């Protein structure tokens, strides 16, 4: 219909000259291929049919069927109707009277959109003192363009280790604390927030939820184990000289970790006057210049204070040495490397000489040198009036990085202590420790079709060395589709994994320190890819074809129906294989994978079956696949020919004697419900009454009965023809008989047959092979013609002989008569 006609139709409709009908409503599903039938106008309206707008649908002009014209995307068609019905309208013009039919087409939603998070990383801060059940709102929710259940999103957490859960109330989404938190134990929790829609085959999306546990003041100060317990103040020290450095720690952060040091009120007034304690740094120093004549010992009790905590305390013993005149002293000659009077020695060195100590004695005092009993692992040996200070075994930086070797100067008898000298030894770290993993083997299970970049697991290696030597970096050997963060050791998948391609990955993780040369440690990470039901069952062909004879017994096998599923376990198990069509004489044997007959199959009732087969797996959700199946029913010769004309063995037809030879008198019409050769019918007259010289003949193919000769007087009366109707079925043809009753009569009165004629078959009726009928008829005609020719010749010869005899007899009689009368003139010619 062109635009001009449409305008004319619309003009007539607006003036009321064309009737407009009630609104028709059709429903289709989005994302279908073009050409899918939506509905039809033919049950209500007559042809022809036209559409005013064919953007999305087309209308068959003759049938009135409505089809999709292109693939329709509901979200594109109705972007602002996510929660409502998506429709578009159209108008059809029907019938020869140009009736207008308004239509509305509803586009139903399918689950073709995956939930989407705006951010892949969602940060959240939770205080460590949050009580169990405390909820924190999550504003970063996923969006789904689908509608209804397809767009309804549910959430759950992965890798939460029970610390957190998800609570969803309508459109509100909250993170709920489920276990007590401790920032000092674990500061960061890396969770995976999974959003799953409500489709029949649900789609999902993930986002990384990084929960940082913020600090609260829940830890109290503690003095370090290596805090000084004993300190020595040499004689003649000035105000401000450092005496001891106290160390205390608080595991909290920031303001919560600040510590204030103070003296206990129980220390002596003299100690308060001699010493000063820095409340922030914990440094004890001299408050005044010191000079004593005899050794003094002071016991200081120090508190480490923090808000809301009971103070931690330690005790410091300080010895003040007196000024001693003319007492021995020690002169140190360094042998090993030293800096600012401090010996520097690399770890793992064999026993090494550090310094030569010389005792400088005065004339009034003698002394000897020895080491304090706690000065291990060092030794002091006399050597030609001096002393050699050396290590007694290799030093290990990881065990202790700094030593204070105390040299004691005493009298030769060891009864009097003259003084103490402290020599500091710093141990330099070397790269002698390779990184060591917390576990030598890690194992992680992950479902296939994962989101790329999702956190899988974290490996941790420690290096006992210090600074650069102890800094660990990670890398993957034979990593394949996996990546590892160089600094954190977090392993993630760079791509979506498919279990059907590979179900296990063994990764070698190398941890390398910063030494030169560097040292490495390794661990094995086994990642098992868990199956999800992402592969539907697969038929080897989308369309099966089978051929079966209609006489097949019940439960006989028609053919094999195989189906496979690439998944494993229940996901790959075919639990349902059946025919969707109702009331068909076939069923599928799931155990054998075969199609079997379950009922009577009759080609004459139905020559083929178009079936739809479905196979479903045992996964969750269940996936299924359909295939077409066409079963052709092949014919067997199980139907006798049926004679439709004449309708009865008592039927009778009157024939005029004036009927010309060659005229068709009547016709035998029969059908056979079989097909092919089984339905090919032939006709044959096997008997007639009267038996001799029947003037009628039947065409074996058409069944036409014709008059083969002119009717004579002896042909008047009733003729009964006994006709056999056969098919060409194999192996044995089937036949039916019928009587054809013909009456030759001039009056053409309607004839009547009161009883079916009797037929007595001959003792032996030679078979009539169907395939040789043409040859048999030709031979019969040939022999009959030959016999007729012989008979005709014999009759002709007999007539000639009789004629000659009669002629000779007459001549003899005439001669005799002449001789007797003697009067030849009176002879008359013979008649």
From TrEMBL:
Subcellular location: Cell membrane
Pfam families: Cadherin (PF00028), Cadherin_2 (PF08266)
Name of the protein in its database record: Protocadherin 20
Transmembrane segments: 780-803
CDD domains, per the entry: Cadherin_repeat (cd11304)
The organism's taxonomic lineage, starting at the top: Eukaryota, Metazoa, Chordata, Craniata, Vertebrata
UniProt-recorded Gene Ontology molecular function terms: calcium ion binding
GO terms (BP aspect): anatomical structure morphogenesis; homophilic cell adhesion via plasma membrane adhesion molecules
